[in-house]
Write a structure and sequence with these properties.
203 residues, Outer membrane lipoprotein wza fold like, six-stranded mixed β-sheet, three-stranded antiparallel β-sheet, 11 strands, elongated, Soluble_ligand-bd, polysaccharide transmembrane transporter activity, Polysaccharide export outer membrane protein, Poly_export_N, signal
Length: 203
């Protein structure tokens, strides 16, 4: 009888351990919303924003230079309607376009009865902010700087809270409906307009 009781006790312990493991797995799935964990790809490889390919969004700020025309050159921000309000030619759609594409369009419009043989150059001078939410000390919007990593972003928000899950974060890119769950590494990059969410850990 004592031997049978001992075997029964071991079986109960194993069963309890299995229940605990299942519970941990369930909580882990809930924490990430059953989303696939991303641990590789462009966010881990790109050193910074590729400026020539960068597509503007609301609150990005550019410097436009119209050669030999200082009165129409200057700095301009992408407005809430996704356009740049430029001298003489008015509002030019900018959201989702590169500065090269916008400069070419502005050059065409300036040449259509406003300026003779205009030459237009444009560059990004200030990127739109990123947002960080969840288990950080001071959540909110923060200015973006080229080369920003996830760990930099968390440091800017004054660090993790004691309840934070420091192994993964959620990131939703500007213009996308859903966030993705990423493994936190020193290489993980944040882009302008990203919404970063630091999750709460369960244990």
């Amino acid at each position: 009888m004592p031997r049978a009781s001992a075997i029964e006790g071991v079986s109960q312990m194993r069963f309890g351990a299995m229940i605990l493991m299942c519970g941990l797995a369930l909580l882990s799935a809930c924490a990430s919303g059953d989303k696939e964990l991303v641990s590789s790809g462009s966010r881990y490889a790109a050193p910074d924003v590729a400026l020539e390919d960068y597509r503007l969004g609301i609150d990005d700020r550019v410097r436009m230079t119209v050669f030999n025309q200082p009165e129409v050159s200057g700095e301009f921000a992408v407005g809430a309607d996704g356009a740049l309000a430029l001298p003489l030619i008015g509002r030019v759609p900018a959201s989702g376009k590169t500065v090269s594409e916008i400069a070419a369009e502005a050059q065409r419009l300036f040449g259509d009865g406003y300026l003779r043989d205009p030459r237009v150059g444009m560059e990004v001078i200030t990127f739109r902010p990123f947002f960080i939410l969840g288990e950080v000390t001071q959540p909110g919007p923060y200015p973006y700087t080229v080369g920003l990593t996830a760990l930099n972003a968390i440091a800017v928000a004054h660090g993790f809270t004691p309840r934070s899950d420091r192994g993964v974060i959620g990131i939703r890119r500007s213009g996308e409906a859903e966030e993705k769950i990423y493994k936190v590494t020193p290489e993980l990059r944040i882009y302008p307009g990203d919404t970063v969410r630091v999750q709460e850990r369960f244990f």
